[in-house]
Design goal:
This protein has 351 residues and is of the alpha+beta class. The radius of gyration is 21 Å and the shape is globular. Belongs to the peptidase M42 family. One of its GO terms (biological process) is proteolysis. Its cofactor is a divalent metal cation.
């Protein structure tokens, strides 16, 4: 196992805690608890975004954002036979859902279930070749039709049932998108003391369904500069050419140049690189061809803002086995801390 400096138990708690878009309650309580010892003020808005603020001298402010929500589902129907049908919350690849354990979160507690997968030798050739769809997924809760309808209600939310593990040099589990970056933000907040500028650490909601929480915060806190944290693709696995890797595990935190929603401000990503070089923090550049992040939610929501982003390279995104290198997590925490601590409000990010 590679050496690392962070609190693995907290990372595991964050990743294993449930919180789909619009229902981030449980993970929000963890965030508020962690902010208690590190920030001057904590507030939650009507959407559920949590902002922990460390006050600086002067009027200049920096927003650091990582989203709390994970991809999941909402119950859309319970059949007479007792099977639960789902509606996706966020972008799922239905191919990865077969034979997975889930938890259905009801008002009376969690109900365990499994996503059914018929044995392959009973399938016709047509069934084997069919393209899977989320709407075709069914959850078996092990109950009769009447009992299932008593236990599960339309509108209940569903998350994958998975634990977070150390595996060689990586951590692997569900919801590293974006709990590993939420974790990095919380760790940086613990380290930063007496910054020259005011820092708003924002744990945002509903990123997976359209960057909705960040757009609201862009208006509410109206920062002078915004830095978003999210995972990014690491296709450094068999079947991909080197030019399609986007990032590689173990090569450091990724400084975003663009994704499908944003082109980061050149002077911001250049200063991120400069800080990394001066502090000898491992880093790489990220050009993500598709997908969006909270970076875009802050860029032009309430007037134009300079924005930058750090990403944790992650394999197998939007599955239950997302995997990130521990040294890349450390590098992300280190660079975020160094960048914020060195922000004076005097840097010119204008074109």
């Amino acid at each position: 196992m590679a050496d690392y400096e962070f609190d693995f138990d907290l990372l595991a708690e964050l990743t294993e805690t449930s919180g789909v878009p619009g229902y981030e309650d449980r993970v929000r309580e963890v965030v508020r608890r962690e902010f208690e010892s590190s920030v001057d003020e904590i507030r939650t808005d009507a959407m559920g975004n949590v902002v922990g603020t460390i006050a600086g001298d002067g009027d200049y402010s920096v927003a650091v954002a990582a989203h709390m929500d994970e991809i999941g589902f909402m119950v859309r129907h319970v059949t007479d036979e007792g099977f639960v049908q789902l509606d996706a919350l966020g972008g799922w690849d239905p191919r990865v859902l077969k034979a997975q354990r889930v938890r259905i979160h009801t008002e009376d507690g969690d109900v365990p279930g499994v996503i059914g997968s018929p044995p392959p030798h009973t399938l016709s050739e047509e069934q084997k070749e069919a393209t899977p769809k989320v709407e075709d997924v069914h959850v078996d809760v092990g109950l009769s039709g009447d009992d299932a309808k008593e236990a599960v209600t339309v509108g209940d939310v569903v998350t994958m049932d998975q634990t977070t593990r150390e595996m060689g040099d990586v951590v692997t589990g569900k919801a590293l998108d974006d709990r590993v970056c939420l974790f990095a933000m919380l760790q940086a907040a613990e380290r930063i003391e007496d910054p020259e500028v005011t820092v708003h650490f924002a744990a945002t909601v509903q990123e997976e369904v359209g960057l909705r929480g960040a757009k609201a915060l862009g208006v509410d806190i109206d920062p002078n500069l915004a830095i978003a944290l999210d995972v990014t693709v690491a296709n450094d696995v068999p079947g991909f050419e080197a030019g399609d890797h986007v990032t590689e595990l173990g090569e450091g935190t990724a400084i975003k140049l663009k994704d499908g929603s944003v082109i980061t401000t050149p002077k911001v990503h250049r200063r991120l690189r400069s800080v990394a070089e001066e502090a000898d923090i491992p880093h790489q550049s990220e050009i993500l061809p598709a997908g969006g992040t909270d970076t875009a939610g802050f860029q032009n929501t309430h007037g134009a803002k300079p924005v930058g982003a750090l990403s944790v390279p992650t394999r197998y995104l939007h599955t239950v086995t997302e995997s990130a290198h521990v040294e890349d997590v450390d590098a992300t925490i280190d660079l975020l801390t160094a960048f914020v601590e060195s922000e004076t409000g005097d840097h010119d990010y204008a074109y």
